[in-house]
Predict the structure.
Amino acid sequence: MELNELEKTIVAITLLSADVRKENIRWLAKQNSLMVYEVFKLKKNHFHKLKAGGVITDLILIEMIAFVFAIKELIESTELQNKKNRSNDLTGLRKIARNQAKKFKKVRKTPKRDLLMNLHNNIITWIEEGISDRGIANLIYKTKKIQISHTEISRFHQALKKQKHVEK
């Protein structure tokens, strides 16, 4: 069988161009072993369907076409059915889930954070008076003799803004 004839037969049966088939095979090469195993399980089913159909008699060609069908089926099964979602694969969903998990992550408690919580009312009044984060850090050092960075004060200040305790 010649290359052109082989290519025409595969395109006619699979309805996929050579470029799409190559892209699908590249996709499979990036997957883990479990996904590859799933492709070969699907390939076995497609092989038996094609062989039972009796249209193709060449077993090697049936193997090739079954492989292409199996990859195509697995790719289609991993795509989302919801067309509203612009990211149509599972990796996009994983990224969204990770970002949501970060949003709901609890703030780690530290002794300095607890001290800031105890000085909550004082910090609010100092912020309302217009004292900067560095100034508040200096005031805490003068009154409590505890060194707290202005960045920690700034994070606490941002948290107060989110909770609507402070307007500025």
